[in-house]
Amino acid sequence: xxxxxxxxxxxxxxxxxxxxxxxxxxxxxxxxxxxxxxxxxxxxxxxxxxxxxxxxxxxxxxxxxxxxxxxxxxxxxxxxxxxxxxxxxxxxxxxxxxxxxxxxxxxxxxxxxxxxxxxxxxxxxxxxxxxxxxxxxxxxxxxxxxxxxxxxxxxxxxxxxxxxxxxxxxxxxxxxxxxxxxxxxxxxxxxxxxxxxxxxxxxxxxxxxxxxxxxxxxxxxxxxxxxxxxxxxxxxxxxxxxxxxxxxxxxxxxxxxxxxxxxxxxxxxxxxxxxxxxxxxxxxxxxxxxxxxxxxxxxxxxxxxxxxxxxxxxxxxxxxxxxxxxxxxxxxxxxxxxxxxxxxxxxxxxxxxxxxxxxxxxxxxxxxxxxxxxxxxxxxxxxxxxxxxxxxxxxxxxxxxxxxxxxxxxxxxxxxxxxxxxxxxxxxxxxxxxxxxxxxxxxxxxxxxxxxxxxxxxxxxxxxxxxxxxxxxxxxxxxxxxxxxxxxxxxxxxxxxxxxxxxxxxxxxxxxxxxxxxxxxxxxxxxxxxxxxxxxxxxxxxxxxxxxxxxxxxxxxxxxxxxxxxxxxxxxxxxxxxxxxxxxxxxxxxxxxxxxxxxxxxxxxxxxxxxxxxxxxxxxxxxxxxxxxxxxxxxxxxxxxxxxxxxxxxxxxxxxxxxxxxxxxxxxxxxxxxxxxxxxxxxxxxxxxxxxxxxxxxxxxxxxxxxxxxxxxxxxxxxxxxxxxxxxxxxxxxxxxxxxxxxxxxxxxxxxxxx
Length: 755
Description:
29 strands, eight-stranded antiparallel beta sheet, Arc Repressor Mutant, subunit A, RNA-binding, Ribosomal Protein S5, domain 2, 18 helices, elongated, six-stranded mixed beta sheet, Ribosomal_Su5_D2-typ_SF, disordered N terminus, EC 2.7.7.8
């Protein structure tokens, strides 16, 4: 790596003046990350956005992402979480495109941008130090995209470098790699083509000492041993990135700023513990309480503690914060010591599960899945293939998916947790949970399914793991609708309670919890969601809330989740084992209609009148697939029957005399046009065009040049129908004298006149 001093000496020897251009060049610092498969990632800083607290540009291939980070202290802020905002934008200019909206500029966030922002947030959030509560924002700009490398993993590494080089307190760096499997061969950072062919799309984010920070995966029912091997490979390769960023920070990183950590008075903590610890344990150990009653009991104790201590400690917020700390410590210590959870279950025991399908007859498919106090209602709706979800141009270039004929929409109304709020709002959380459930179910959908599938999942009750309940309920709803899925799918969430030494690097003790409750997710250290079929894994999302977990814990979590998922599948089979083979009366119908070329005009009608009438009166959708075939989609069989009656009426053949090829007929002119005349060979015939080129041996621009009028009869010769358009081919000029005879007769007549 060239140092600033060597650059300066080199430029001075060559007589180059040290202007601003070369000064900017000298300020740029970079490092190269060489992966084991020969690919190289470039990470640089110091040239762009120098007024930000930290900035880094990461490039892989010709795809480059710039990430900036800025953190500001907010006066009077005492919140216990990090107010972190991550905004990822895919600019059209990076792909050489212009936005197609009215303003021709980037507007709101797309679904892909939101999901990428979430995956960056989940990767960097666990490494902020406890007590850091400054407003922090990361802005990720896609500078250039080559359509080969996916920019999401590049963005995570750029964010890691930007935070590591900045003065913002952060316990990084981290490294992110993508792992794929093509033809049973493991590939690091596969390109877009390889991802489309891969049985696995796994993103691994790891910190120093092989600590796993985040996992996100989609798989095609991948076997468990192969999945575990891919995680180990990703963690090992991530260490190369961590080492490179650490070296860049050591040479060019800023000194981390100090921040005032809000410490709770130890006397206050002791006072809260002495007057409430026994009562808190009684509530947390009472397995007869449900979510609402347990929360109410804890809140009653909280109010009583605040009333008793507000005279000695005037800050009510500090008292409430100390009480929350005592509740969390007691909750975690009870599980670590007794290995018994607050609802009385053992560590790997599942909650009570019940399933129901075909809930409402008018729906194409429906199911209710209940697991403890988590309840979801899933519905399936079929529509024509034209209703597929289209992607925006930049998402097509970066992700490679032009349209989706299967998508899942997840809804989480406020009443699901006994709260009030704006109904129908669709935030980043709902989008992320729906995308996870969709990824889990997509591998089991038949690739040649003739309809577009919209699966909705509405959470009616929530006490943990509603996204995985959506996978279970969605699988049942699909089978209830008769979708021939390759295999049923289910999902489960696994949590962990850990106990660390003082350096937070050495794990003393831990307990893995299968099928976690909402309180176990909130007070635990991991939310590990795994979905799949009986055979293998289809999706995984692991969010770690501590600065990384050892690889051993992640491996065990996969095993616990896999066993729990299979147990759920056994329960689901008791309700519906295989997809329904008998179609419901309200199932949509798709027919292929062959329209000969000579009947196409009758079928479409003048100005598309017949097609518009068909859609308006019957509700069907008509799509042309090629020159002769049309797809007719009807919402049910009754609508298809009505559509068939109209189509038969449009194409009804009137009794028409047979025309002989090469025969001569008397045609009646019914209309004069600029390009020719419209004639009929018999009374009940549709008019046919006799083109100007076939009216006379001479070239004419309008039929009136020949003195033709409406109602006049002329002789024409029939040459069959055009094989493409089906139009009749008629000619008048072939019945006239040849051009040579006409010229000869004119020459003889002129000679006689001269004589």
